[in-house]
Specification:
Elements: E1 6-12, E2 15-23, E3 63-68, E4 71-75, H1 77-81, E5 90-98, E6 107-115, H2 121-134, E7 136-144, E8 147-156, E9 159-165, H3 186-198, H4 210-223, H5 245-259, H6 282-308
Helix pairs in contact: 3-5
Length: about 300
């Protein structure tokens, strides 16, 4: 098991579940060092005091909050530890909600909650079973690094997962980013839906980090004094080129079907003319009925004149 990041308990009503928090993800990104190109010497980041120019150790560095220009209020770790945080050592469940009511934008890092001792096994299993049977997720509060956070608890296989979440006021509104109202043909929408069906998968477990694999090949080749692997060229689209949306959709559906080994025959669809309205507007209906009545009256008058003569 990975080293615990935090130990505490889940507060579930009057039930307390001792737990350990362990990372649910691993970072496989390749890290680079900075170096001096002339002699390959490492370049390191040093913490230097801007007043006396001295390089400081971590023990000599404190926290402070800038309340105004050139005025900083120092805050010690002891003062922060004395802050009245009821969730300092507990993940306090405050509500249960349907999973689809949680906006994924608010979800941040993920952690596994492991039992801390045999005494935690029964209440841990009880909470897990309750979440499974109710089809709900738990919303909780907890405090890490002297900050109260919002969390989400859900079940993954036989474990309870904690997702840290952002507070509502930390999410920016996308209102200004939304495109203006755009007219779309029904055939274009239908083809786009067909494309989503053609690209549908039962899961995403098969995806791999191709960039990291290519980077590992590059580093392995350079470390052995070999030439870097050749990169296949890709056709680049001309910038600013006007895209034929329906043609792109037709080609995409065909390519998706070929990838899945299906019949790649695609019946080409072209945007049709806007359909005529089936119902006339009330004012137009009124004008039409008025004209019809006038014509009928004129025909009756003409018939009477002919009879009289």
């Amino acid at each position: 098991m990975p080293r615990p990041l935090w130990t505490g308990a889940i507060s579930f009503g009057l039930v307390t579940i001792p737990i350990k928090v362990v990372a649910a993800t691993e970072n496989h990104s390749i890290s680079f060092h900075q170096y001096h190109q002339e002699d390959m010497g490492r370049i390191r980041t040093r913490k230097v005091c801007e007043i006396d120019g001295e390089v400081l150790s971590q023990e000599e560095i404190g926290k402070g909050y800038e309340v105004a220009k050139d005025r900083t209020v120092p805050v010690t770790d002891e003062e922060l530890d004395r802050m009245p945080l009821p969730t300092a050592k507990a993940i306090e469940i405050v509500a249960f909600v349907d999973a689809d009511t949680i906006d994924p934008v608010r979800i941040s890092d993920s952690y596994y909650l492991a039992v801390d001792g045999q005494v935690a096994a029964k209440p841990y299993t009880l909470l897990r079973r309750a979440l499974e049977r109710s089809d709900k997720v738990a919303v909780a509060k907890f405090a890490w690094h002297n900050r109260e956070r919002l969390g989400l608890l859900r079940v993954r296989e036989d474990a309870i997962v904690l997702h840290s979440m952002r507070w509502p006021d930390e999410i920016r509104s996308p209102e200004s980013l939304a495109p203006r109202e755009t007219e779309l043909d029904e055939d274009e929408i239908a083809r786009a839906v067909q494309l989503t069906d053609s690209m549908a998968l039962n899961g995403i477990s098969g995806f791999r980090d191709r960039y990291r694999e290519a980077l590992e090949e590059l580093l392995a080749a350079k470390s052995e004094g070999k030439a870097p692997p050749a990169v296949p060229g890709e056709a680049e689209e001309e910038p600013g080129k006007v895209m034929d949306l329906m043609a792109a959709l037709n080609a995409s559906v065909k390519a998706a079907k070929e990838t899945r080994g299906e019949d790649a025959t695609v019946h080409e669809m072209t945007p049709g003319k806007p359909r005529a309205r089936k119902k006339a507007a009330p004012a137009a209906k009124k004008r039409a009925s008025g004209k019809a009545a006038a014509k009928k009256t004129a025909r009756k008058t003409t018939a009477k004149k002919r009879t009289a003569s």
